[in-house]
Hints:
alpha+beta, eight-stranded mixed beta sheet, three-stranded antiparallel beta sheet, 10 helices, 11 strands, flat
Amino acid sequence: MRPDVEAMKVDIEQSVALLRRRLDWDVSLRKLDELNARVEDPTLWDNPEQAQAVSRDRSRLEGQINSVRALETDLEEGVMLADMADEEGDEATLEDARELLRGVKDRAARAELEALLSGEADGNDAYLEVNSGAGGTESNDWAGMLLRMYSRWAKAHGYEVTIEAHEEGEQAGVKSATILIEGPNAYGWLKSESGVHRLVRISPYDAAAKRHTSFASIGVSPVVDDTIEIDINPSDVRTDTYRASGAGGQHINKTDSAVRLTHVPTNTVVACQAGRSQHQNRDMAWKMLRARLYELELQKREAAAQALADAKTDIGWGHQIRSYVLQPYQMVKDLRTEVETSDTQGVLDGDLDRFMGAALAARVGETRDGN
């Protein structure tokens, strides 16, 4: 076997062994059998909420198990193909085998990271909120760029993206916006993106072509279903209605259909204007508020367990988690993990996996040795 093929084989085998260990393979197989039996029990559906929870657990565990099995199968196929090509001196087929194994190695690396998504809400959908900092048009434009960046990342991974609230900037970009990102592990991947993001560039709005620094903040909250109890005293919540802006037709622009909720004790504010009626927006706003308060509780638990600072800060100077420098050089650097790249355009087009993966691994603090 060629040395490079042998190296990939060993690396993939290590990944698979780690995945099996993290899943506690035999226990997971027994649990999947139990969940399959429960789903097939007609009486389970007498309680739809419980049935949906069981179905989600089964789908998630089945996906993890099938992912490991697929890696093992494709590894075996790639190695067999490489051995045959090597014996016959078929360089073209050998390169095909290498390409297959490279793909398996990449999938294994991502599966390793996904195996770390074991937090209480990591498998949930997510709300992502972007707010521009001080700086007017510059910061609004930067907030709009971030909104596009995360929307592209989500769509590239097969997630559904829905705009729940959108307040446009006066000349460009957005002052604030909230999107719903739906898909497996959406919150788990995005949670490390909460914080202040800094942009340095030559401003397209400055006739003197001077370099400007802009800030915008990202906040991420998990979508919570009715099986998770979030106790909110209605008297603690102030409700405001206002006229929705942006697209939506004549009705949405002529009535006070948009809803803003403020949870006074925590000063948590959410807004929704995506629905066609005030009733729809009120229901969605309450869901968003429950998600935000749940995220605050998760942060408190994590801080107590790991002594980590809350990643959500005010849009202040010196609190940024990542810098995006477009002038005088090209560099995106995460200030927590030191991961950096000169491919600024790729990042702004949604290529964020390297940053999310490093932040996720750093938060969990696990290694291949299991220490």
